[in-house]
Amino acid sequence: MTLPNTYADGNCPLARTLEVVGERWTLLIVRDAFYGVRRFGDFATQLGIPRAVLTGRLKTLVQEGVFTRDDDAAGGVEYRLTAKGIALWPAVHALMNWGESFYSPNGTKRLLRHDLDGGVLDHEGRCQDCGAAVPVPDIRIEPGPGFQSGGTELDPVSSAINTPRRLLEPIATTRTPAQARRRG
Ligand SMILES: [Zn+2]
Fold first, then answer.
1. What mean pLDDT, rounded, does the chain reach?
2. How remote is the CA of residue 141 from the centroid of ligand 1, in Å?
3. Which of the pair, 121 or 178, is modelled with greater confidence?
4. Where in the numbering of this chain does the HTH hxlR-type domain appear (predicted)?
5. Which residue in 110, 113, 153, 160 sits closest to 134, CA to CA?
6. In terms of residue numbers, what domain contains 46?
7. In this structure, is residue 8 part of a structural domain?
8. Fewest CB atoms within 10 Å of the CB: 105, 107, 164, 172?
9. How far is the CA of 40 from the centre of ligand 1 (A)?
10. Average pLDDT in the 75-87 region?
11. What's the gap in Å between 36 CA and the centre of ligand 1?
12. How far is the centre of ligand 1, averaged over its atoms, from the C-alpha of 137 (Å)?
């Protein structure tokens, strides 16, 4: 038996939202896009997600206007968050905060800072140094004190994500032309 893919409550905006981002993996794909992942193969590598599932999730996100799908200069395809997609940031941030509050016994795993002055963001996304409500492109994410590295050799995408970086800044991975064709 397969579950229905719509929720019955037409008057609940949360139910409507979950029809778009409530499937398994979808919010992690969105999170990776905030981290700067843009290519199919990089999402697949970073998430360890079956390619057929990733294809389906990306298709839905493009159909719903959360991502754009465009050819890049190297002849591949890039998926990028739209303004509608970036508008999911406060929800992603709130869910991250919830996880940090209840499931990070050794301290914050992912620290968010205002990149301009290094101030740590509070749970509402304000810089604790200058008080600004920090726009998404000015947020720097970095491993916090509770971050545990796996100790194994990481793929280039995971390494980039685990290095302090601004949100939305594209992760540069090198590809052979054959990979570009296959991943496109
Ligand atoms: Zn600041």
1. 89
2. 14
3. 121
4. 12-107
5. 113
6. 13-85+174-183
7. no
8. 105
9. 34
10. 95
11. 22
12. 13
